[in-house]
Amino acid sequence: MDISSYQIDFEDAVRIIRKKRYKTIAVQLPEGLKRVALPIVDFLKKETAANVFVSADPCFGACDVLGSEFQGLDVEFVVHIGHTLIPDMKRLPIPTVFVNARSKSDVSVVIKKAIPLLEGKRIGLVSTAQHVHLIDEVQTLLRNHLLEPVVGRGDGRIAEKGQLLGCNFSAAAALVSKVDSFLFIGSGLFHPLGLMLSTKKPVVAADPDTNSVIKKELVDEKDRLLRQRFGAIARANDANTFGVLVGTKIGQQRMNLVLDVQKLLLSHGKQVLLVALEFFSPTNLQGFEGVDCFVSAACPRIALDDYLMYKTPILTPVELKILLKEQHWEDYVFDEILGH
User: Which of 48, 152, 233, 340 could form a disulfide with 171 if both were Cys (CB 3.0 to 4.6 A apart)?
Assistant: First the structure.
């Protein structure tokens, strides 16, 4: 099914719904695809005769699956669109199929722009779910220019070879000693920024959807982000009471990390409040008077993406260690949720 600039294959979803004779299903979409919810629902209803709900709640990734609350609507099955399965995420509340939305953009033009900016000969290739199917074509293009592309396999949270998540750069980490620089294929700044910080290698970001290439801008953005994070740590310098944010989304539950953070804070004589919630926003946290600083043990992006919206500083576990002098600022890296 071609929708907007994406190709979405519902074959597996339709086959499962028909085989199991599901009567009521739910569709989960990221924000960018909600505008095409109507044709998607019409298609699924026509192909399966099922009653279809669409979740209007924000969907931030494959870690963010619909929970048991939808069982109260008699939902028997979920079609989660726009992300790939996280393989080591088990025990979903409702049977779910993950249907990727693949970009239909031509990658050749933007790769030609990117090649002159690449450093060295051995190039690590990484991408996100929407563009990871283009990696084979990119390898051929690079080899035609006498470069040596290398693609890594991530850990248990990664479905596709060469794929990055916003919380997991393991496919790139596997290549650090094998490449001179990285080529990121995809949209946005967050993934290539995390790539730079996790690998300490030069990165060129090529966006096939806009045919834009950035390199120096990434370095500038990295410097801006690090200044911001240094400021967040400085704001928490006199904090005594810490709220540890515990995510209830299945793919973000890191209880071992929660307990480690609590133990670390208590060992430094700090007070600790464990705060569990599903959706993080300034409104949800502003009522906790007396909390001087929050530490996110949920999605690593919570502390970074909406930093300016929160009056109380939010640190990542890595930043907490820097604050407590357990780690050096020079060793700063993005917080990641790693798999097995």
Answer: 152
- Please list, in sequence order, all residues whose beta carbon lies within 8 angstroms of the beta carbon of residue 265, skipping any fewer than 6 positions away: 242, 244, 271, 272, 295, 320, 324
Alpha-carbon separation of residue 313 from 112, 167, 170, 293, 310 (angstroms): 42, 20, 28, 5, 7
Residue 21 has which token pair? Answer: 């004779």
* CA separation for the pair 293, 27 (Å, rounded): 36
d(CA 260, CA 239): 18
For residues 229 and 310, what is the distance between their CA atoms, to the nearest angstrom? 13
Up-side HSE of residue 165: CA atoms within 13 Å toward CB? 32
Give the distance between the most distant pair of CA atoms in the chain. Answer: 61
Predicted local distance difference test score (pLDDT) of residue 163: 97
How crowded is residue 29: how many other Cβ atoms within 10 Å of its Cβ?
20
pLDDT over 90 (residue 32): no
Report angle CA 111, 115, 116 to the nearest 5 degrees. Answer: 140
Determine how many CB atoms are found less than 10 A away from the CB of residue 114: 25
Please tell me the distance from the alpha carbon of residue 38 to that of residue 52, in angstroms, as a whole number.
Answer: 11
pLDDT 10s digits, 298-319:
988 888 877 778 889 999 999 9
Q: Which amino acid is at 165?
A: L
pLDDT, tens digit (0-9, with 9 covering 90-100), for 207-237: 999 999 999 999 999 999 999 999 999 999 9
Q: Tell the burial category of 134 from Cβ atoms under 10 Å away from its Cβ (0-12, 13-18, 19+).
A: buried
What is the gyration radius of the CA atoms in the chain, in angstroms? 21
* Distance in angstroms (rounded) separating the CA atoms of residues 211 and 156: 32
Task: Convert the pLDDT of each residue in 39-72 to its tens digit.
Answer: 999 999 999 999 999 999 988 889 889 887 888 8
What confidence category does residue 287 fall into, taking pLDDT thresholds of 50, 70 and 90?
A: confident
Q: Residue 102: which of 238, 2, 223, 226 has the closest Cα?
A: 2
Domains of the chain: 2-103 (3.40.50.11840), 108-214 (3.40.50.11850), 226-331 (3.40.50.11860)
pTM of the model: 0.91
* pLDDT for 103 beyond 80: yes
